[in-house]
Amino acid sequence: MKTGPHTNRSCAESGVANLIEYIIVSAVLMVLLVVIMLQVNTTFMQTPADTLSYVAFTDIANGVSTRIADVYALSPDDGMISSSFDIPSEVAGKSYFVMIGQGSNPIDQDVEISQGSIDIDVSLAGIGASRGVTGNTTGAGMNRILYDSGGYSS
């Protein structure tokens, strides 16, 4: 083995080859890291948030349906009744929209909750067959259910 400065050209090319190999391997690993980071957000963060939202929206829709059924059960023959209630402002950090809409059967009605691609429909406990219920709200603030035996004009 020789000691001292090397003037052999193959040693210089070997150093450059190692540098290029390092750069190429690093670039491939960086590309894989970026692809994995994009997938991690969907797999580990978005999917559980959507599952949580679906379950929470089902609970909220059942609660709204129950409150409407309670107002219907207490409704006077002649007069007006009002009930205030609060639902969560946000679910999984996002706001949502609640609407009373047409059900699968023409006489049924549903409580529909939607947020982005998530849409939940829960039956309105059979009230739609005897009384038409309309309205919409969001989770923000206090919400009210109003009943007037004389009806509401549009």
Q: What's the structural blueprint in terms of helices and strands?
A:
Elements: H1 9-74, E1 80-86, E2 97-102, E3 109-115, E4 118-123, E5 135-138, E6 142-148
Antiparallel strand pairs: 1-6, 2-3, 2-5, 3-4
Notes on the protein architecture:
This protein is α+β, with helices and mostly antiparallel strands and 154 residues long. The chain has a domain at 48-148. It contains one helix and six strands; from the N terminus they run αββββββ. It has one helix at residues 9-74; strands at residues 80-86, 97-102, 109-115, 118-123, 135-138, 142-148. A four-stranded antiparallel beta sheet has the order 4-3-2-5, with helices on one face. It has a two-stranded antiparallel ribbon with strand order 1-6.
Number of strands: 6
Number of helical runs?
Answer: 1
The secondary-structure element order is HEEEEEE
Contiguous low-pLDDT stretches (5 residues minimum) are none
The biggest sheet amounts to: 4 strands, antiparallel
> How does the overall form come out from the CA principal axes?
rod-shaped
Q: What separation lies between the terminal Cα atoms?
A: 100 Å
Radius of gyration: 31 Å
Spatial strand order of the main sheet: 4-3-2-5
Which structural class do the helices and strands define? alpha+beta
